[in-house]
Design brief:
By secondary structure, this protein is mostly helical. The chain has 2 domains: 83 residues, RNA polymerase sigma factor, region 2, helix turn helix motif (Rna Polymerase Sigma Factor, Chain: A, Orthogonal Bundle); 156 residues, Up-down Bundle (Butyryl-CoA Dehydrogenase, subunit A, domain 3), CATH 1.20.140. Helices cover 71% and strands 0% of the residues. The chain has 10 helices and no strands. Helix 2 packs across helix 3, helix 3 crosses helix 4 and helix 8 packs antiparallel against helix 9. It starts with 5 loop residues before the first helix and ends in an 11-residue tail after the last helix. The relative contact order is 0.10.
Length: 242
């Protein structure tokens, strides 16, 4: 029997408080029927993966690296539960995908490149644009699910919200169009994640790539979508998922 790696064990032990803190933060946004211990268990999975994959040569702190892996694992676990309605499902999917985007952006930015005002501003701009697409895709996927299940209400043209709803539906149509313009594998992955509700791992298995490659394919696809959406004059809008 192989002895436990003392370095991995130390990393896991040092971040037990972080797992609980993140699980508590997520639980406050959820119905009381969701058990805190379940969230902690999901977080432990992310912590174990972070301890295994961490590369100290990149110069970042392990706790920073583990933060995004733990948070992402908690939302990955939540996405597999069947307790939530469409509004909660949209929230979980947004948090899940946005956590993955920010994690990759941090992992792909060498520590010696961080800290400069211009670099930080560029990082923030790029992440903001990508997260705006995550928000739009999440809302669009949620609306599509409601329409398929017959839950979407007919909009009264005289309603004060009619113009806003019409604009959102137009943006949804444009999003579907630009997704179709992506390379085939990227389009299939995006549709599986946002329109069918699959996790990144499940979507990756469908297109024949690992979870890590699915994350990178997802991130690149979002960047392409941001560019395509700007080219068809879809402005970045405030995300209503709260």
């Amino acid at each position: 029997m192989t002895a436990p790696d003392p370095i991995l064990s130390q990393r896991i032990q040092e971040c037990q408080g972080l797992v609980r803190s993140l699980a508590l933060g997520v639980s406050r946004k959820l119905p009381p029927t969701v058990e805190l211990e379940d969230l902690i268990a999901y977080g432990q999975v992310g912590l174990g993966e972070a301890a295994r994959d961490f590369d100290p040569g990149r110069g970042s702190r392990f706790s920073t690296y583990a933060y995004y892996r733990i948070r992402g694992a908690i939302y990955d676990g939540l996405s597999k539960m069947a307790w939530f309605d469409h509004s909660h499902a949209a929230q979980v999917r947004y948090e899940q995908m946005s956590a993955d985007v920010v994690r990759l952006k941090n992992e792909d930015t060498p520590s010696d490149d961080m800290g400069g005002l211009e670099t930080d501003a560029r990082w923030f701009r790029d992440v903001s644009r990508t997260l705006a697409v995550v928000c739009l895709a999440t809302r669009t996927g949620s609306e599509a699910t409601e329409e398929e299940s017959g839950e979407a209400a007919m909009v009264d043209p005289s309603s004060p919200d009619a113009a806003e709803l019409a604009m959102e539906r137009e943006m949804s149509d444009r999003l579907h169009a630009v997704v179709d313009a992506l390379p085939p594998m990227a389009a299939q992955l995006v549709k599986a994640v946002y329109f069918e509700g699959l996790t990144l791992q499940e979507a990756g298995e469908r297109v024949g790539v690992s979870k890590s490659w699915a994350s990178r394919l997802h991130s690149r696809a979002l960047e392409q979508l941001a560019h395509l959406l700007r080219s068809v004059e879809v402005s970045e809008r405030k995300c209503c998922i709260e």
